[in-house]
Amino acid sequence: MQDHILSIFQQRFSGQPLMIHAPGRINLIGEHTDYNKGFVLPAAIDKGIVFAIAANDQGNTCRMYAADLDEYYEFDLTNFKPLTRGWQNYLMGVVHEIQQLAYAPKGFDVVFGGNIPKGAGLSSSAALECGLAFGINEIFQLGIERFRLIQLSQLAEHNFVGVKCGIMDQFASMMGKHNHVIRLDCRSLDYVHVPLELNDYSLVLCDSDVSHDLADSEYNTRREECEAGIEIFRKSDPNIHSLRDVDLETLLGHQQSMPEVIFRRCRYVVAENNRVQEVCTALEKGNLERVGALLYQGHAGLQHDYEVSCKELDFLVDQTRTDDKILGARMMGGGFGGCTINLVKTDHIDTFIDQIGTAFQKKFGKTLKTYQVHPSAGVRII
Ligand code: GLA
To answer: What is the CATH number of the domain that holds 43?
Structure first.
């Protein structure tokens, strides 16, 4: 992949580019908790986007080529705005946010392409943002620290893409570590790398193949619903700033004073934060059965309380329930499509893929795509 991207760069542009790898991510547990200032447990994965990037001598012109799509776009650093949609927005958004911090990058050329399955909810968007932010910072020696790069990549998505995402995806893409998940406190941004010792189990992703177009608008709606919940809690306790500050008791105490939907959204978030902590404890103790059980609980919450699942995802999770070689499964990411994450006995993977693939084909008339992923290093020069 790296050679391929480099040779395309050399055909189209001149100069010796810097080569960068920016990974996608998985999330073991902690869904929709990041923008509620809670806990998440993601990891960067061994699938990502490779960038070839170099400063050019074209003044303020930035030239970008998406190798996998065979699409070219250029823009002027002094005059650009978001398009209706498209990959350009992730990249221009990053440039915009760097400028907002009062840095003045010059024109650059970039070619990128990778192997993150499209629409699978593995955060190719965060990889795009983080890879470019990292690359621009390197080639122009801007000296922006990694934490800042994470935050500006997130803002790019808010301001140029229009999704009010949390910080998890960008954080995971930047801070990943081989064989570790990242326990991130999204309020303080304190984090630790937790070893992911799965012994004779592995992580397998099943791709629902549902495009999560709906996700963007519903995602923002969920955020608003959580904010509506916080407003209600704040009336009785002004020290509550996010759902992170709400415990189960407080939540139940407010059940009658909030709309039923808002209550369920809040209930999910409060419980999910607890699950992240519990999964960490279970991982420490090597209790994978408990991890699996918590994954199933997480799915139930996403399905019934947060309502971001869909019939394909529910079907994929349900298929695993009677298989004693699978410890747990849940939908992963923002929802309305994307993948399920499954904790499967390694020597059972082939059988599992075969069986669930057959069932999925029968039910939805589509071939099921599955991926095996491994926690890997974050954005880096290659
Ligand atoms: C998307 C967002 C993340 C996070 C997840 C849900 O991936 O980009 O910030 O909120 O959904 O956990």
So the answer is: 3.30.230.10
